[in-house]
Amino acid sequence: MEHFRHIIEVVGISIDGAGVLVIVLGALVASGRFLVQRPKGPGEGYRVYRQDLGRAILLGLEFLIAGDIIRTVVVAPTLQNVFVLGLIVLIRTFLSLSLQLEIEGKLPWSARKSGGP
Length: 117
Prior knowledge:
Elements: H1 2-36, H2 44-75, H3 79-104
Helix pairs in contact: 1-2, 2-3
């Protein structure tokens, strides 16, 4: 059982690492795109840059939440750790919703406007 917990802990840390990597690579790609693009209007380059960076952060946060859940549930499922996990997930979810609202201009559950019938 101890071997299984160690494996799951490594998986959780790996998923955390993937989340950090996604954020870093996303920031680099967004920055590179910002530097080489030709904006179509005033402030357009900045808006696109913020959206690209926000998307990278959102995806990275999803990985970080998944890593926290895996490690807390399997490796150390104490009541205190579950409460700490709940607080971390609550904070990261708030950040995700705030970023989503900033990027898309609407909340994730809002209906999409369709162009056709």
